[in-house]
Amino acid sequence: MEVLHTSFVAKARIDFEDADLEDVDKRNSYAQRTPTTTLPFLETKEGNISESLSIQTFLAKKFKPDLLGSSIFERAKINQWIEFASCEIQKCLQDIIYPIFNWKEYNKELSDESNKKLKQYMIILEKELNNGKKYILGNKITLADIILFRYLRFFMMLHFTENIRKSLFPKLTKWFENIMNSPEAVEAYGRTILCKKQIKPLNIKFDKSKYSLENKSVAKNEKNPLDFLPPSSFDLESFKQEFFEDKSNNKGKTMEKFWKEFDPKGYSLWWIEYQNLDTEGKKLFRTKNSKNFFLERLDDDFRRFAFGIHGVYGNEGDYKVRGVWLWRGNEIPKEIKENDYFKYLTIKKLGIDKNNDKQLVNEYWTKTNKGNKVDGRALADFTYFW
Fold first, then answer.
1. CA distance 228 to 235
2. What is the pLDDT of residue 348?
């Protein structure tokens, strides 16, 4: 997305195509067209260029040279901060953020050490902005700002709470907010929602071909308000186990049993949709981020009380993040209300006595092959919340 950001700041006239990295054949076919067999890549009249920084440098030099500095010294300083971001801050990203998305196995010792280093790096940047500069080199944005913003965005959204931001690096936070609210960043990234509650990795390795209670490590450290609801005849954990063990295409027996055993007094069903900005829902990889950031902000303990499928539906240029959820109780729980994305959600309660609503639940929960029509849209990507 930093390439998108650079192109918008530079007002570069280029077209973007979503490679869909999960489509192995498509990804490989694209990779063969690049000098390094890596993505992303840029097609030009002179030839193809791969690697994000090389593409950004090319776009800046061609369309907005000021992004690279106006003197030898400025160019060196810009390169300094780019290397600082890609070498030092990137290492912290791998140990702190990657495990949240299960991109890397969580290691507490490495995470704690990276967190200490990260705070030191933030203080370094805070000092650099201490003389009232709007951007890292002065009063004009450069490629260093764009790349630093890209690496810090995950930390600002998932790791650094408001208290930490205000106490340790208020000037850096102001710099970050200035960029995140710019039209170019909004168009490239969509909404950037700052962290209220620090998100920590959940040590669950999920294989959707099977379901095992032993794979779940959600700690019950304290009582949840949902624990105090009257007992329900519906066994959520048994349903989950049966659901994932059912290998049939439409999970017919499982869903038939679900509707027979469902307890509408103890549980409720809901349809949720993220409200796109005008610039959102255009590219699949960006839309997936909206889905994932919402899910990662849900408390791990909420898994004891809920089940859902949340996905991206539609086609290039018109994607929606939607899902159908089951949770304990008949009201919207605090886990949803306290989610930073809550004010951007449309939430509708579904009625089990309405055939259309039951059909909607069946569609979302059983049509999970890419391209399946669900709620009038093609499935592009989805995640189980279990």
1. 16
2. 97
Q: Which residues of 335-373 are buried (b: 16+ CB within 10 A; e: fewer)?
A: bbeebbbeebbeeeebeeeeeebbebbbbbbbbbeeeee
Q: Give per-residue pLDDT as tens, 198-208.
A: 998 865 554 54
Residue 196 lies in a domain: no
Q: What is the DSSP letter of 130?
A: T
pLDDT for the residue 214: 43
Output the pTM of the full model: 0.85
232 touches 267 (CB < 8 A): yes
Considering the domain architecture, whether residues 289 and 376 belong to the same structural domain is answered as: yes
Q: Which of 351, 339, 379, 354 is nearest to 157 (CA)?
A: 339
Q: What are phi and psi of 381, to 5 degrees?
A: -170, 145
Where residue 218 falls among pLDDT bands split at 50, 70, 90?
very low
Q: Are residues 219 and 363 in the same domain?
A: yes
- Domain end position, chosen among 136, 154, 189: 189
Contacts of 299 (CB under 8 A, 6+ apart): 335
Q: Residue 22 is part of which domain span?
A: 2-65
